[in-house]
Amino acid sequence: MNESRILIVGLGLIGGSLAAALRAAGFSGTIHSCDPDPGEIERGIQMGLIDHGDTRLAPLVEGATLIVLAVPVLAMQGVMAELAAALPPEALEGESPRVVITDVGSTKAAVRDCALAAFGRLPAGLVLGHPIAGSEKSGVAASNPRLYIGHKVILTPAPATAPAAVARVLALWQACGAEVLEMGVDRHDQVLARTSHLPHLLAFSLVDTLARQDERLEIFRYAAGGFRDFTRIAGSDPVMWRDIFTANRDAVLASLDDFEVGLGRLRRAVEAGDGDAMLAIFDRASHARHYFDSLLNQTSYQAEYQMQEQGKLTFRAAPGGRVAGRIRVPGDKSISHRSIMLGALAEGVTEVKGFLEGEDSLATLQAFREMGVAIEGPHQGRVTIHGVGMHGLKGPSGPLYVGNAGTAMRLFAGLLAGQAFSTELIGDASLTKRPMGRVADPLRLMGAKIDTAEGGRPPLKIHGGQKLRGINYDMPMASAQVKSCLLLAGLYAEGETRVREPAPTRDHTERMLTGFGYRVDREGDTCWLQGGGKLTAAPIDVPSDISSATFFLVAAAITPGSNLVLEHVGINPTRIGVINILKLMGADLRLTNEHEVGGEPVADLHIRYAPLKGIDIPLDQVPLAIDEFPALFIAAASATGTTRLRGAEELRVKESDRIQAMADGMATLGIEHTVREDGIDIVGAGGSDIAYGGGRIDSLGDHRIAMAFVIASLRAGEEILIDDCANVATSFPGFTELARVVGLRVGEEAQEVKA
Question: Active-site residue among 103, 360, 428, 627?
Answer without folding.
Answer: 627
